Amino acid sequence: MKKIFIISIALIISGTQTAQAMTNVSVVNKNKISSKNGLVTLKVSNLPKSNGIYISQCMAIKQGEVAPSACNSAMSSKLWISDIPADIKMGAKSSKSKLTLKVDKYFDNGDCVHTKCILFVSNDHNASSDQSENQAIPFKFSGINLF
Questions:
Q1: Straight-line distance from the first to the last Cα atom of the chain, in angstroms, rounded to the nearest whole number
Q2: What stretches of 1-147 adopt beta strand conformation (E)?
Q3: The predicted structure's pLDDT at residue 143
Q4: Cα 21 → chain centroid
Q5: What is the distance between the alpha carbons of residues 84 and 81, in angstroms, rounded to a whole number?
Q6: What is the DSSP letter of 34?
Q7: Architecture of the domain spanning 23-139
Q8: Taking every pair of C-alpha atoms in the chain, what is the biggest distance, in angstroms?
Q9: Across the beta sheet with 24-27, what order do the strands follow?
Q10: What pLDDT shows up at residue 32?
Q11: pLDDT one-digit tens code per residue, 100-127
Q12: pTM
């Protein structure tokens, strides 16, 4: 009985460690984004070792889907983050640098005032078929509480 208990605990712990392997992305001001400048401040840790991540402003993911159907096409609302030196040379931001992006209240096929918007996190082009980093982080502009 003790062996079963110890094995069960080991499996739970190893499962927990796997779940924590996902990149940690936090929005410092996620409920207080200025509706005037739309600047979002991010903190990122635990990036994958072999690739980076993309973060984009998008409409919320529809039920039954795995990715958003509409994202802001403005370059200022996208961010490429990687700690791989070759990626940084090509324009990626290091997770250790100051990370900000600009979100818009409205964009093509997007309305973040009257509906829910997210910051969508995904693996970069070096692991594009791997969806293990996919995350949807909701945010809202300060003073706008419609949902």
A1: 50
A2: 24-27, 39-45, 53-59, 78-81, 99-102, 106-107, 110-111, 117-123, 135-139
A3: 63
A4: 14
A5: 9
A6: -
A7: Sandwich (2.60)
A8: 62
A9: 24-27, 39-45, 99-102
A10: 80
A11: 999 999 999 889 988 899 999 999 998 8
A12: 0.79
